[in-house]
Amino acid sequence: MVATAETKTQIDELTGTYKHGWSSDIESDFAPKGLNEEVIRFISAKKDEPQWMLDWRLKAYAMWQKMEEPDWAMISHPPIDYQDIYFYAAPKQKDGPKSLDEVDPELLRTYEKLGIPLAEQEVLAGVEGAPRIAVDAVFDSVSVATTFRKELEKAGVIFLSISEALRTYPELVRKYLGSVVPQRDNYFATLNCAVFSDGTFVYIPKGVRCPMELSTYFRINAENTGQFERTLIIADEGSYVSYLEGCTAPMRDENQLHAAVVELVALDDAEIKYSTVQNWYPGDKNGKGGIYNFVTKRGACRGKRSKISWTQVETGSAITWKYPSCILEGDHSVGEFYSVAVTNNHQQADTGTKMIHIGNHTRSKIISKGISAGQSNNTYRGLVRVMGGAEDVRNFTQCDSLLLGDRCGAHTVPYIEVKNPTAQIEHEATTSKISDDQMFYCMARGLDAEEAVAMVVNGFAKDVMKELPMEFAVEAQKLLGISLEGSVG
Amino acid sequence: MTQHSESPSDVAAFHAAYDHLKPALPGAGWLRELRHVAMTRFLSLGLPGRRAEQWRYADLGPLRKGSFSPVTLAQETEQARIDAAAVPGLDAPRLVFINGRFQRALSRMEGLPADLAPQSLREVLITGGGSLRDLITDLRDGDAFDQLNTAMMSEGVVIDVPKGLKVETPVEIVYLVDDADDRAAHLRVVVRLGEGASLKLIESFKGDDSRFFTNLITQTTIADDAHLTLIRRQNEGAETVHISRIYATLGRGALAVHHLATGGQSARHELRADFTTEGGDVRYQGIQLARPHQTLDTLTFLDHAVPNCTSDQAYRGVLAAQAVASFQGKVLVRRDAQKTDAKQKSDSLLLDRSATSNAKPELEIYADDVQCAHGSTVGELSTDQLFYLMARGLSPLEAKAMLVEAFIAALCDGVPDEAARNAFIETARGWLQNLDIHDLALKEAS
């Protein structure tokens, strides 16, 4: 009977009678522009949050007001006016394009290349009247989502929006929220603590291997949580989960500032595989517009023999500021970071990872591939730290940069801090361009210049692409080529 | 780079020393003006704190706590002490500085070519110093230590190698610290090579246990087809704070720096090279041997601003218990500096679990047709190799010493002067001998 009730809720949500009622009383769902305690109280009240959650948000807000925006990254942008941002807003239905005809043809061309069906293009482009389903719901069907939910429930997996989780499992959320990324962690994370709109909560019980790849694809209510998203994933002892975030399709979003926080916790023998394809609007050819993406992602390998693996394909956003990290506390725990970051036109990416080795016999591997084209700047910034008490630590880092054109920049800023002699740390970095020989070889076989570049770039990024789950891999490959369009010839 | 001042009090002692010394500082009106501006800037910048990116691994604590004023009187020192500080067996012209004061009487100029005449910086400044004006002014926008040096410098040497002169003999400079607690030396060395000139400069820093502060800036300009080799052995006393920087501007010439650092309580070594003409080449080979409780820090910055230049950096660090040794090496390839070939390699060896090794090999690249690579490793001695040697009768200490020597041998071997090369090896051996078995503790049969 429970399942039936659940299904009904699903259908209700999918068909638009969303519990916060987008379509009914829109005006009341807007908090005024700007940020103050009232706005935070409003957000918390909207979400029916317990008092402790509100207090937590307010505490973060108080901290944030005393903090300064970091300036160490190799990025530049005009100052962000935090009082000119809506921190809580339902989707602006009225402002959307009326039909696909009004959508930027460039965007449509990209959809076409990715092979996205028309109906779905409407959703992605935010066309008015498009079905209000989860943005990422590629399989446009209630039954798919519901079937998945049932299957997850059977396995005991909790997979909810974080607002829902706060209501249903408050103690579980309370125990882990902010335990990996502390409230005071950094300017953008602290801001997120104060104002996060929604996000995902996942709990995998002991010994459970999550029966499917989890993804916002299948989670209901995922829309419009992109701006200040909060994700918390807990893998209990001996469990396994693979989580996919994002979408290969370029996303229109009017919110320029994104500051998400992702926290992962892996207990004994647990493994979390977190894959991201980030393709937010990068701005136009002249560097106008585009998303500022300031993300804090961190995983704690708390348990022995636990493992956290980050894989990311970053092609979007005007600014990417993101360092998915692993805190390797448990003995024999493993951290991995595989990254492909592509920047074109005027994009700026400052991204990398931190591997903090605390436990004995902890291992980490970093493979970073940066590709810069146009007038973009692409920076790898990474820290490998071995604490004094961590015996027999291993790290291998490889950072390769590929430059397409002579107006772009590729930078490598690794920090290696070792306090234990039993550690074996290796770091390698190279910077190069696509050789004329490679281009000639491909083009002599009938590829045009852009295809040749796409092929070489995919080869260059292969070590990372092969870590992506199947669902993402094929599209991500196409995406690399598309992101670099116009960078040759 | 944002500088973070810890507190105004940490520069007060320098300010007082400057005020006291001001009337006696050599230099014409333009320099007085420049010194005043520099001191004002230094006071507003303050000493860099740990949050300043380039200083995150340095230890300026001893500088903050102490109070260092320059020596104003010449020091009597026995010849034997100077000889002991110099490179053994090097028969070459020698300039001697004691506690930062140039000692003409103890220096020897025989053997120099007729048209090479090193001058005392003090004398050059007293007589107007116009020929140094541009170089000194170049550092106007520098960091706190540039400012401090400009404000306070009173001693040093100016070497101008005329066009086409290839100086066969090496030139040695000895910097000796002797019984000089709470003293400082703000030194400026200027080396200018004309077209096609070449010079090999061998520097030795040596000192007793004085609480001393060495603050040296070497400025060099290397014209087309000129070649400067700078061999520097820094083996100052255990209580010294050492900050030395080399600023090189290259035409289509070459610079080779060979550096061995073992001395000081806290020592910082910098190399900045600016390529201004295609075809420039920089080789850097640096070794840091850090004894217990010591902080050694090296920073390099190679600015490939023009195409077709090459650089090759190799760094090796060995760290005993409680030591901190860091290497920050940056290569900047500017827009249009195509065909740049820049290599960098840094390796560190930790001899004890309480040592800390930091490395930051950084690339900032804005041109696409370049070859840039860096590699960095950190590790300990291989237990297999130790076992091999010990099975052949070596004590654990001997076995470790042999492997450490082998680790740095490649860089010692590169020193292009036999006497200096032997001095590198001997200094390294001396360093090893001063460690006891405790510092080199073997992991017990694990």
Automatic annotation (TrEMBL), chain B:
SUPFAM superfamilies membership: Stabilizer of iron transporter SufD
Pfam family, one: SufBD_N
Span of domain SUF system FeS cluster assembly SufBD N-terminal: 30-173
UniProt superkingdom: Bacteria
One GO process term, biological-process aspect: iron-sulfur cluster assembly
Domain SUF system FeS cluster assembly SufBD core residue range list: 180-407
Spans traversing the lipid bilayer: none
Stated family: Belongs to the iron-sulfur cluster assembly SufBD family.
Name the UniProt record assigns to this protein: Fe-S cluster assembly protein SufD
Protein species of origin: Iodidimonas nitroreducens
